[in-house]
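User: Just a sanity check before I run the rest of the batch. Below are the structure tokens for the first item. I only need the designed sequence back.
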């Protein structure tokens, strides 16, 4: 073990006819070897060996690895060789040694195969396999974003600067610069792959991270859309516009189940007894165009209580149904697909429900808003009552079926259907419009409604199926904004009278 300077080289022909070269630290050792090779060359009729002085001088660091095998590596300077030798000896002693040739012998493609196999078998944490949906996302990012650039790169050639440049200039599927969100997800996945290379002792450190584990090249992705939290009346309004799927929308908005969970429910999952609840123990996910029934997102079952207002409708729904029948099937009796449901039913319903108040105001030629959304306040009430008097309708502080139909007769044909479709709901003073919620916002709505009636976050965590209460608090922190300010006001109550 040590460092030696290589100044001399002997070129010679082996018995196989292959031309080889040995390097030595002294001229004497080089000439001694050349003499032996010259004798062999004479006997075999081979070309005589040649001795030459190396320029520039080369330094060789030699050490024994963790298995006792002799390893060497050469450097241009003694300082480089000394630093390398010190690091290798320390790594062998501490059990962190990694053969420098390992990274050179594995490409990014080979690393991906090993990494995705782990994801599919035991998962990133080693506790359970990733869901097919998650694996599909990883495969897409690798095939579309990572593989075209990195596929044949030896891991030894991956550098922080190279990863940073790739993340900044990553090309999307349409040939232009990929979105910030796509670049962020792809670069983070590549970094996780390199973490796996460190774990299996192919790399000593992750070259996609700086000295403190940071990745300042990851682009800042724009904030995701804000969640929509419906009030109970707004949820009922949305459900009314869902037509045949009214109960599905209301059920989701009051239980907080995810789409894959609610569409996987069967009749046997319901207990409509004295303490009604639904058992959530499976979920559908769509992978490569196929629906796959598997575990819930957290791989854990949970029971969610059911309000009495749902029990009556559910009791009616399950009458004469088999215990194994889907609770909310498609028209053909199969599991519903999210894309079809959204396009055919939910998208029209959410747009109609979200703008009911504004629709009335436009027809009446008025505007009354709060925070940019139409609200049924005093100004609108005066206009509504005036319209009711003019058309001989009952004057009351509400917009009901009769007034909706009357409004439909007073607006252009292009807006008539929206008015008549709205006849199924009733608007009252205090109602307001809301931003159109995506289906997942029904889950957010359920959590917000539960938090409004109980401050026990642990209970809400169990209902939502979160891993722990911290997740619930972090996800729905904005719902505690009033508590944030009320806490200061509450301090005054501690003063003794």
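Assistant: Here's the designed sequence for the first item:
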């Amino acid at each position: 073990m040590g460092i030696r300077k290589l100044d001399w080289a002997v070129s010679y022909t082996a018995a196989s006819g292959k031309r080889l070269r040995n390097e030595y630290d002294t001229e004497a050792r080089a000439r001694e070897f050349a003499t032996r090779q010259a004798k062999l060359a004479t006997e075999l009729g081979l070309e005589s060996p040649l001795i030459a002085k190396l320029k520039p001088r080369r330094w060789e660091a030699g050490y024994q690895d963790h298995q006792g095998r002799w390893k060497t590596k050469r450097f241009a300077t003694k300082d480089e060789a000394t630093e390398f030798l010190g690091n290798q000896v320390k790594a062998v002693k501490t059990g962190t040694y990694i053969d420098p040739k390992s990274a050179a012998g594995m490409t990014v493609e080979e690393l991906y195969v090993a990494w995705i196999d782990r994801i599919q078998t035991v998962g990133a944490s080693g506790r359970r396999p990733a869901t097919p949906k998650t694996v599909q996302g990883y495969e897409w990012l690798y095939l579309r974003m990572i593989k075209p650039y990195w596929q044949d790169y030896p891991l030894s050639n991956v550098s922080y600067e190279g990863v940073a440049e790739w993340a900044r200039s990553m090309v999307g599927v349409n040939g232009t610069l990929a979105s910030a969100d796509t670049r962020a997800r792809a670069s983070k996945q590549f970094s996780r792959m390199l973490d796996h290379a460190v774990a299996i002792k192919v790399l000593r450190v992750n070259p996609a991270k700086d000295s403190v584990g940071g990745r300042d090249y990851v682009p800042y992705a724009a904030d995701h859309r804000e969640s929509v939290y419906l009030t109970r009346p707004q949820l009922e309004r949305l459900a009314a516009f869902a037509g045949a799927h009214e109960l599905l929308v209301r059920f989701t908005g009051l239980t907080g189940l995810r789409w894959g969970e609610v569409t996987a429910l069967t009749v046997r999952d319901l207990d409509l007894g004295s303490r009604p609840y639904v058992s959530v123990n499976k979920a559908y996910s769509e992978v490569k165009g196929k629906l796959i029934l598997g575990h819930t997102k957290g791989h854990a079952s949970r029971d969610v209580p059911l309000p009495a207002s749902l029990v009556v409708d559910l009791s009616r729904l399950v009458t004469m149904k088999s215990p194994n029948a889907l609770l909310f099937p498609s028209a053909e009796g199969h599991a519903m697909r999210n894309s079809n449901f959204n396009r055919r039913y939910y998208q029209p319903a959410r747009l109609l429900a979200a703008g009911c108040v504004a629709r009335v105001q436009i027809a009446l030629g008025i505007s009354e808003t709060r925070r940019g959304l139409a609200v049924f306040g005093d100004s609108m009430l005066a206009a509504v009552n005036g319209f009711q008097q003019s058309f001989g309708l009952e004057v009351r502080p509400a917009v009901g079926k009769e007034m909706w139909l009357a409004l439909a007769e007073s607006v252009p044909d292009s807006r008539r259907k929206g008015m008549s479709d709205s006849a199924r709901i009733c608007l009252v003073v205090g109602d307001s419009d809301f931003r159109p919620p995506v289906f997942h916002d029904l889950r957010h709505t359920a959590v917000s409604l539960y938090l409004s009636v109980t401050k026990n976050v642990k209970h809400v965590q169990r209902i939502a199926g979160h891993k722990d209460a911290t997740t619930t608090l972090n996800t729905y922190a904005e719902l505690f904004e009033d508590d944030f300010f009320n806490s200061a006001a509450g301090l005054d109550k501690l003063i003794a009278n």
